[in-house]
Every structure is written in structure tokens, then in C-alpha cells.
Amino acid sequence: MEQLDYKELLPPDWLSPFLEPFWIRRVSGSASFFPQGVFELLFHSMPLTYSSVIHEPKAVPAGVSLVGQQLSAYRISSAQPQWVVGVRLKPFAYFQPQQLAASEVKNTIESMQHVFGISRELETLLGWLKACPEQLLEVQFQRVMAKLMPWLKRLFYSSEFAFPELLRAKTNTILDARGNILIADICQQFATSKVTLRNHFVSKIGLSPKELCKVWRMNSFLLNASHYPGDLTGAALASGYFDQAHLNREFKTVIGLTPKAYLAAQNGYDKHQSSQVIYSRFIGHYDPF
Q1: Mind listing the pLDDT tens digit for each residue in 10-34?
Q2: What is the CATH number of the domain that holds 174?
Q3: What are the tens digits of pLDDT across the range 215-238?
Q4: Are residues 108 and 249 in the same domain?
Q5: DSSP 8-class letter at 4
Q6: 154, 156, 157, 159: CA torsion to nearest 10
Q7: In-domain check, residue 25
Q8: Which residues contact 84 (CB under 8 A, 6 or more apart)?
Q9: What is the percentage of the chain residues whose pLDDT exceeds 90?
Q10: What is the DSSP-derived secondary structure letter of residue 102?
């Protein structure tokens, strides 16, 4: 598979409470993704196929699709090379359409054409993607995303979407700890029970707080593994695991592979890109949360 092109663009200030970056990626064959504790709105001019170690391949038609919360590494593939635009939603910012609860898109992808319908902005974006050249200039990406802003404003500033301040605070507590925090400590901080906390997360995010801790602790491990090349035990301890055996058990449960096997299967581009995205999230580059 050829090396994929990837670019990120931070959203304007008024959208930053809801979104991390906009991104665009050239998908030729397939592209791999690690679970990140976020939702991804994908805009694509040709069909895509989603697959993971815990999910059979699933195709979605050209248009707008939503990748829900993931507990497994997954792949997005395309029969023909195409540019795919992503809008990465922060974990507490899922807009919860009546047709699709957060729990229904967990570990899968769903076409959102029936939710969003037709709009001038979406038609412009999809038409641009279809005609987009193989070599993309960043200014071209900036211009087309600017045309999508009215659509995004209607989505996040509608009367049906109330910004969940308390949920943001709870998820940021896990993020700040990079997943290395006890559920009991979160409950104590927010004066709530484990059952109430779990129900709040599952209904709004699609993951339990324990699952989100797992995802971000594994993200922390991947970042540390890039700093401790060849020393998986050191990376595991730095990420809050008791030892490498603890890391292996948790990693295999979520990913289906040992850390060593997963890292060996990644190409250099995917390793670098996943580390950059995780680093940007952990240092607050995608703030304000």
C-alpha cells in the first residue's frame, strides 16, 4: 500500500468546544485507525468498507458516514483511491440524532445519509472530493472546509443540542490522567455513584467510563512506545500498567493482538501519524475542551 497523505486543520474557535481537528486523508487500498475515544464524521465521494477484528466488513455508500466509539483497531478501505474528509467529534459532543443512539454506533460505522439528507454544503464538499486531484494543497482544503461551516453551525448550535458541561468535565478528568485513574476516584470527585456514572457515559458517549479509561491508557502506551523504542515494559509502566503482562492482557482484549505484534504490523507512516494525533490530544492542542 502506498504511503497515505494526511492533513489536519483546527476548527474555528466557536466550534472548538465540540470538535478536535478536521482532517483529510488519501485512502488508497486501506487505512488503519486505533481507537481514540472520539466519534468520526466521514465525508467520502465513493463507497467505503469498514472492518475490525471484532466486526465483519461493512460497506457504506458514498456520502456522510459516522464511525462510533471503537474498542478495537479498525480499517477503512476503498476500491478506488479517494480523499476522505473527517470531522472528529470530542467524546461528549455526539449530537445524538433520534435515529441513532451513541450505543448503536459502538464498534461499527453507519451511513448518515438518512439523517442529514441533501444540503448545498454537503453537495459542494462531496463534489469537490470527487474532483480532487491526487496532490492536494492545504489552501484548497481550507477553502472547502470553510464552505462546510454553515452546515456544522446548524448541527451544533441547534435548539436540540445542549452542550453537556458535566460530561465534558468527567471525560476531561480521564483525559488529563491519560486513562490512568480509578473509577472510584472519578465518582468521589463528582459525588456520584458508579452506576450513575456508567449510565451517563453509556447513554451519551456509547462507552462506559472504564472502557474510555482503557482506550486512553492504551493511547498513552502507544505514545510512550514511540519514546521507548524496543522497551515495551518501560512504556507499559509509564502508562500506568502494573507490568507488561497486564498490558498484554488488556491490549489483546481490546485489539486482538499483543502490543508487539500490533506495532510490528503497523507501517512507519501509521505509527508516526497515530503518535502525532495522540500527542496533540494529550497536550491540549485540540483544546479548549
Answers
A1: 999 999 989 999 999 999 888 888 8
A2: 1.10.10.60
A3: 999 999 999 988 877 889 999 999
A4: no
A5: P
A6: 100
A7: yes
A8: 24, 25, 26, 27, 31, 42, 43, 44, 48, 76, 78, 129
A9: 57
A10: G
Cα–Cα distance, 115 to 127 (Å, whole number): 19
Q: Are 241 and 250 in contact (CB under 8 A)?
A: yes
Residue 169: give the domain boundaries: 165-282
Question: Do 47 and 129 have their domain in common?
Answer: yes
Report which of 164, 215, 35 is spatially closest to residue 107, judged by C-alpha positions: 35
77/170 Cα distance (integer angstroms)? 34
Q: Whole-prediction pTM value?
A: 0.91
Identity at 227, one-letter amino acid code: H
As a whole number, mean pLDDT of residues 122-128 equals: 92
Strand partners, 59: 49
> Which of these, 36, 129, 25, lies nearest to 77 by C-alpha position?
25
**How many CB atoms are located within 10 Å of the residue 288 CB?**
8
Q: Is residue 289 part of a domain?
A: no
